[in-house]
Design brief:
Order of helices and strands: EHEHEEHEEHEHHEHEEHEH
Number of helices: 9
Distance between the termini: 26 Å
CATH class of the largest domain: Alpha Beta
Number of strands: 11
Helix content: 25-40%
CATH superfamily of the largest domain: Flavodoxin domain
Structural class: alpha/beta
Bound molecules: flavin mononucleotide, iron/sulfur cluster
Strand content: 15-25%
Radius of gyration: 18 Å
Oligomer: single chain
CATH topology of the largest domain: Rossmann fold
């Protein structure tokens, strides 16, 4: 395989970007990080290797960090990362990636933020449709440039602002890990027991002994369960009530389930 893109996605932004690049880079395979973690596939060999994932608390999603730490590379491929987000430049995902990669004698050659739409519903409501469309237009232009740069193995770095503050903020989040899912609730009057929340969870953190979800305190706060529930039965604290759920318009529910766990 010439190119491999490792993808992590909750609401489809990162999967959309991964697919866009796959279309423009011949001989490219997308692999899903939760599935690779589950199957223990950590040996990689390719000419170019990309990592596309969301910004979580100004740095890496917890499972992306775990995956990177366990990867074993053959040779020195061209490595690149595209981090999708609501607000670019505030954060340190590439610094943190390079810290992990340097232990393996590797380094990112291409680093890009890609601004799409924030899915962090506890902070604020999903952007209006007109704003989503404008962001999508700019994102597509940027992805075309990224594809050209990657195809030429070009070096590209980017701003990463307030690095020390971002490290503290990110670490505080990680320390709260065992209690993250205490804020989830399910309105059993709205729940139809469809099981989507359980199927989409990349940590197998949701059980449904009586049909509706019960969280098991091993959550990475990806928010896939919150956004995917078709009846909006799931909330994260009172603040998400009534806020619009989000999924990238090019990505189907089945694609997201595939991205987290192989369909049964
Ligand atoms: C736990 C969590 C933390 C987030 N933190 C940030 C952040 O610090 N900065 C930001 O711009 N977006 C943040 N976001 C928004 C996502 O990075 C953004 O919506 C991303 O494009 C989602 O990608 P996906 O659809 O592939 O999951 C956060 C989202 C989640 C769920
Ligand atoms: S996705 Fe929503 S409706 Fe389906 S089982 Fe989960 S909480 Fe219930
Ligand atoms: S419980 Fe929900 S937010 Fe937590 S890891 Fe699973 S899908 Fe993601």
């Amino acid at each position: 395989m010439k190119n491999i893109i490792y993808c992590y996605t909750a609401t489809g932004n990162s999967l959309y970007a991964a697919r866009f690049l796959r279309e423009r880079l011949p001989d490219t395979e997308i692999r899903y990080i939760p599935e690779e973690l589950m199957n223990g596939r950590f040996e990689i060999s390719a000419e170019r290797i990309g990592f596309i994932f969301p910004l979580h608390y100004l740095s890496l999603p917890m499972q992306v960090e775990e995956f990177l730490a366990r990867l074993n590379f053959t040779g020195t491929p061209y490595l690149f990362a595209v981090v999708t987000c609501g607000v670019p430049y505030w954060g340190r995902p590439f610094i943190d990636m390079n810290e992990i990669l340097s232990r393996k004698g590797q380094r990112l050659q291409g680093e890009w933020f890609l601004r799409l739409v924030s899915n962090y519903l506890p902070y604020r409501d999903t952007a209006a449709q007109w704003r989503i469309k404008i962001r999508a237009w700019f994102a597509e232009r940027k992805l075309k440039d990224i594809a050209e740069s990657v195809a030429q193995n070009e070096s590209h770095s980017t701003w990463q602002l307030l690095k020390d503050m971002c490290r503290r903020y990110h670490n505080e989040w990680r320390e709260r890990r065992k209690t993250i899912d205490e804020k989830f609730s399910c309105d059993i009057n709205k729940c139809t027991s469809c099981g989507l929340c359980e199927r989409v969870c990349p940590k197998k953190n949701i059980l449904r002994p009586e049909g509706h979800p019960v969280w098991q305190h091993d959550c990475v706060e990806c928010l896939a369960c919150l956004h995917i529930c078709p009846t909006q039965a799931i909330d994260y604290g009172g603040v998400t009530r009534g806020r619009r759920r989000y999924r990238h318009s090019d990505i189907k529910i089945a694609d997201l389930i595939r991205a987290w766990r192989k369909s049964k």
